[in-house]
Amino acid sequence: MDTKVYSLDQRISDRIRLEREIRGWSLTELAERSGVSRTMIHKIERADSSPTATLLARLSGAFGLTMSTLIARAEMSQGRLSRRQDQSEWRDPQTGYLRRHVSPMSDLPLELVEIELPGGADVPIPASAYALHRRWIWVKQGTLTFVEGSETHTLGEGDCLELGAPQDCVFRNIGSETCIYAVILLRTS
User: Fold this and answer.
1) Radius of gyration (Cα) for the chain, nearest Å?
2) What one-character DSSP code corresponds to residue 130?
3) Domains, the chain
């Protein structure tokens, strides 16, 4: 396993525990708020199990954070310049989805994230992961099928979609080639 990915996984585990403790929540309370089992949260916090993108989205949503913010807090890099080689990456152990936090860590209400979604992969994300944010998806390469509640959008290279009110959604790559897209998040509160 790549040591950079492992060390970020460890920092994510530590950050999840810290976010829970800052709020004074027990494992049970976080489980109830996130819909993730207490046992799984315990395994994630001990770094015995790497969370999938879906689980990470549920946990970050319970904290009132985006997945990007939670991972960025784990990475804790500062400065106005974010060089590609220094950008934090996280790979979903279940789907191979690779997430790169592109924007520099700052107090601005904007986040830019690049995603590489392997062919045949589906990544469901709960609505809670996007609470208090406006979101756009911009496809840079390939084709993305994005399911937003009951509506399905097929996005090709260069297409950009503004998402509506937060709903459960699925990022789906029905092709065989990797789809690369950006998610732009704007905090509204």
Assistant:
1) 16
2) G
3) 3-72 (1.10.260.40), 78-187 (2.60.120.10)
